[in-house]
């Protein structure tokens, strides 16, 4: 056993010597390669190609400077009043003297000033921005980013089929938790790119259900009137309903049942649709196969 260990140690020592020798040879080869590369770069830098490259660059710089001088001289020439007067006389004839030209220039300046003044007077003043309270999410990091804010910009009627609703009741749905984690973020960013009521990605108002009173309608709204009690559910890519005011399309809104209070009505549109989908679509229950039976949803 001792003899085996002795021979093994000899082999290991021999292997160490070979590895060390190979490492030294490789290091020398790398040093030689670097020296050759340095010499090659130095010779290239001092060669005729370098001089030719320098000449080409110098020529391009000279051409650029000459072109800049030509542009400067041309600009000075064509903005000279004397030159302009001579060219204008050549165009309209010699009967136009300097007084007529000056009067025309003064008239042009006065007309331009009057036009700008009239345009500024007729300009539509920007709408004053009003703020409202809302429950929002300030980052897509989960429910910890939910915040109650009092300085959210109030939405307004921007489309003929818009309906402005004064919120009387709203609810939080499971989909709002997903929205807090970034659900429908990409789709929301694309669809709301040209929505004037969306000012940036965050803060985002939460809530999908709403019950309230119509306060304003667009010109194309025919099914609703101001003062109607309504309810609706909005899709995940639109601003939410947990705010003082919400603006939605007419297609999402319908009249609230008179027998329901606002808080009860606000709990049904989105959640009720989900429950109906589970019962009628997923479980395929109907009056034919579920009559006189009880189910827990």
UniProtKB/TrEMBL annotation:
It holds the Pfam family ADH_N. Residues 160-257 form the Alcohol dehydrogenase-like N-terminal domain. InterPro entries: ADH-like_N, GroES-like_sf, YIM1/Zinc_Alcohol_DH_Fams. GO terms for cellular component: mitochondrion. Signal peptide: none annotated. PANTHER family: ALCOHOL DEHYDROGENASE RELATED, RETICULON-4-INTERACTING PROTEIN 1, MITOCHONDRIAL-LIKE PROTEIN. This is Alcohol dehydrogenase-like N-terminal domain-containing protein. It comes from Homalodisca liturata. The lineage of its organism: Eukaryota, Metazoa, Ecdysozoa, Arthropoda, Hexapoda.
């Amino acid at each position: 056993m001792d003899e085996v260990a002795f021979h093994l140690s000899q082999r290991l020592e021999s292997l160490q010597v070979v590895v060390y020798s190979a490492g030294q040879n490789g290091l020398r080869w790398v040093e030689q390669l670097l020296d050759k590369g340095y010499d090659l770069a130095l010779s290239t830098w001092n060669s005729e190609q370098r001089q030719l490259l320098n000449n080409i660059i110098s020529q391009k710089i000279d051409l650029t400077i000459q072109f800049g001088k030509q542009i400067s001289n041309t600009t000075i020439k064509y903005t000279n009043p004397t030159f302009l007067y001579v060219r204008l006389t050549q165009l309209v004839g010699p009967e136009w003297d300097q007084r007529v030209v000056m009067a025309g220039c003064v008239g042009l300046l006065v007309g331009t000033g009057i036009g700008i003044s009239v345009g500024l007077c007729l300009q539509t003043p920007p709408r004053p921005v009003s703020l409202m309270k809302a429950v929002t999410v300030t980052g897509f990091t989960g429910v910890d980013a939910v915040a109650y804010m009092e300085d959210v910009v109030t939405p307004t009627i921007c489309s003929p089929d818009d309906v402005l609703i004064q919120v009387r009741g709203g609810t939080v749905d499971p989909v709002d938790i997903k929205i807090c984690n970034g659900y429908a973020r990409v789709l929301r960013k694309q669809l709301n790119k040209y929505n004037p009521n969306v000012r940036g990605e965050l803060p985002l108002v939460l809530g999908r259900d709403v019950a309230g009173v119509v306060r304003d309608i667009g010109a194309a709204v025919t099914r609703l009137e101001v003062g109607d009690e309504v309810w609706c559910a909005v899709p995940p890519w639109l601003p939410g309903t947990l705010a003082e005011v919400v603006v939605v399309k007419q297609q999402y809104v319908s009249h609230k049942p008179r027998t329901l209070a606002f808080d009860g009505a606000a709990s049904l549109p989105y959640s009720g649709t989900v429950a109906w989908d589970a019962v009628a679509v997923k479980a395929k229950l109907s009056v034919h196969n579920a009559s006189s039976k009880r189910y827990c949803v």
